[in-house]
Amino acid sequence: MSPAEYDFLRQFLKARSGLVLSNEKQYLIESRLLPVARKAGLASIAALVSKLRDPREAQLADAVVEAMTTNESFFFRDKVPFDHFTQLMLPQLLERRAAKRHLRIWCAAASTGQEPYSLAMCLKEMGPRLAGWRVEILGTDISNEVLDRARAGVYTQFEVQRGLPIQNLLKYFTQSGDQWTISAELRSMVQWRKFNLLESFAGLGQFDIVFCRNVLIYFDQPTKADIINRIGKLLAPDGYMVLGAAETVVGLSEAFKPVPDRRGLYAPNLVAAGGAAPIAGVRVAGLGGF
Q: pTM to 2 decimals?
């Protein structure tokens, strides 16, 4: 691969997916894109680049982006965010939304579905407390391939052993050989949609909770800031945003502030937005204190 071809692929991937590759990642591109080239009947990365320069090659372009996207996910990943979900976010929001009994949750970069389904299990475990409530979970990803897997809800023995409590496995999955299928009831709780975080968020609607974990680390600083600020515009003023353990809004955006003693959890910064700030432990303008 020539320097010019590598530079083209770096710019192509950044424009299409936000993925930023350093000068030392040439080996990664070759290892992941050579199979894509061969599947398309192309002999080399150079031939692949030549094809990608043709704007009519949309299907090939999607295949390249999917091959370069990291799709690491497992059930109840890192555990802490799910503790925040059951111990703080849900109790607060169930109280605040008691009149309309409706919640919307967005899992951005949902990959093969383990995160949305983990949240669905948390909701099911609440039992009668959610009777009469409408809770929508939207899972999005840039990759059609992983979304197809998420919709099917079929996981290998290895995948269900990563983070999933045995009681949840027995309660919500059925086994067929070395594969496990999540229940139709849980699958019906999640809607799936192909979505690129670089695109406009218009049309997604408002959310009470946004999980955007372990994806911002692949973007440059301006892209991270842009995504965080746009999430702030579609999040309810008393909602929550969850980032990955290695991610932060510090130095990127004034739209959010950390929730004290809750790693990775953020609330809209109403002071920066020109609104009244909730004071810890005090109910202000209908908002529960943190």
A: 0.81
